[in-house]
Amino acid sequence: MKEFKSGGVHEDIFFKEDIEAVKKAGDLIEKFNAAGVVSKGVYLNEPEVWSGNAGRIAGHKVLVEPMIKGEYFKFNSNTGHAEPDTQSMQALSHFTYHQSKGQYLLCDLQGGRYDGFYVLTDPVIHSKNKEFGGTDLGADGIENFMAHHRCGRFCSPSWKMPPAKQLIPKFEAVCGTTFGEAAALFSDEERKDLEIKVKKEMRISIRKLWENALPGDKNKNQIVINKSKKVEKKTR
């Protein structure tokens, strides 16, 4: 059961945002299952809005969903923290980023893990336009999650990744759920310096890749012109 502080129209907005997030999450999970990324099916609890009629919830609206039996797991957070031995769920988060072309990312995954399936509850969706309430950290949340994300055996090398400079995290990955804005991990000056270093490292890495891919001995020799203007073959 999930309860919001009462407050007229604000309460209605919170429920609407939660339900809309669950609908979008269900759509993304359905695509993940259809893609056959992992052998276990992934299911999502869908909440309903009820009105309390007794005790402390009398007169309050609450979100109610089926109880998750057995051990309860928190697989990742909305800032990119990932628990050990949860590669299937980390792949689910990455897949949603890839499948939506970087517009959405499903995270804060938690629920039950059973022999043949998962049951998730109360997930978070980050969206470019911050469509889903206080836990939706927007474009910064998407980039930060992917910066902390480490691909495992279920992530495909063909899946979309952010540009290199966006893989510098914006804030710390913590295990709890973050609401609103998180504290910056680097100052603006530190970030600019890191972005310059990333560009340099990318150029070096790309050159090494294509040089090593050259056929035969072409990647071992280099034609150079010495100071006397004579052409020489230099062996690396």
Automatic annotation (TrEMBL):
| UniProt KW keywords | ATP-binding, Kinase, Nucleotide-binding, Serine/threonine-protein kinase, Transferase
Q: Which Gene3D superfamilies match?
A: MHCK/EF2 kinase
Report the superkingdom from the record: Eukaryota
Where do the Alpha-type protein kinase domain residues begin and end?
1-164
Q: Give the Pfam families listed for this entry.
A: Alpha_kinase (PF02816)
Gene Ontology molecular function, alphabetical = ATP binding; protein serine/threonine kinase activity
Q: Write down the SUPFAM superfamilies for this protein, in alphabetical order.
A: Protein kinase-like (PK-like)
The name under which this protein is listed is DNA polymerase epsilon catalytic subunit A
Q: List the source organism.
A: Cladocopium goreaui
